[in-house]
Amino acid sequence: MAIIDLTHRLDANTSIYPGDPPFSFSQCTTIEKEGYSVRNLALGTHTGTHVDAPAHFVKDGPTIDQIPLKQFSGKAVVVDVTGRQPRDRICWEDVQPQLSAHDLRNAVIRFHTGWPVHWSTAEYMHHPFLDGLVAEELLKAGVKRIGIDALSPDETEGTDESFSIHHTILGAGGLIVENLCALDQIPKGAMISFPALSLAGGDGSPVRAYAWTS
């Protein structure tokens, strides 16, 4: 079985969404002094590679601990939208031809922008983003779980800050995975998993996302 890690490593250089809590990982005890090692971990629920629960944007929406475990895995369908310029809008006509070649039942759609090359740099904030119609058309096709290898499927600090993708997908009870990487390594027919921490009342959670083939 082949396993592909789709997760960014968390460290001091982790790209953080503007305004989110900073990442911190500090030593509390050491083997040399106390005989065992313990570290203090502090981060936001949307730090690094993570999944958004509906509660992230929907008042009284399902929280991350209320999502059935089976929803955190499915058939991986990767849409190649690489070669874009900073803040380019990705429209439905850009992705529909690729999606039409797939059976979208139980699919988890992953948008491969190639933007992880800018991870830990200021340029990472200027990623391409999805037009709102993309989410609307995916819902019509029965798709409620999407992901992207960028900071957000919506524009970050730009001219379109309506969060239309978040409102559409999460508003339908779906899930959004952000800050993925290595999407170009997922082979056809692979499955994908992104298990979340069971955080009581959580609006999202860091994940260890991976794809696999049997």
TrEMBL record:
Pfam families, A to Z: Cyclase
GO BP terms, alphabetized:
L-tryptophan catabolic process to kynurenine
The GO terms describing molecular function are: arylformamidase activity
What does the sequence similarity comment in the record state about its family? Belongs to the Cyclase 1 superfamily.
**Name this polypeptide is given:** Putative cyclase
Protein source organism: Cylindrobasidium torrendii FP15055 ss-10
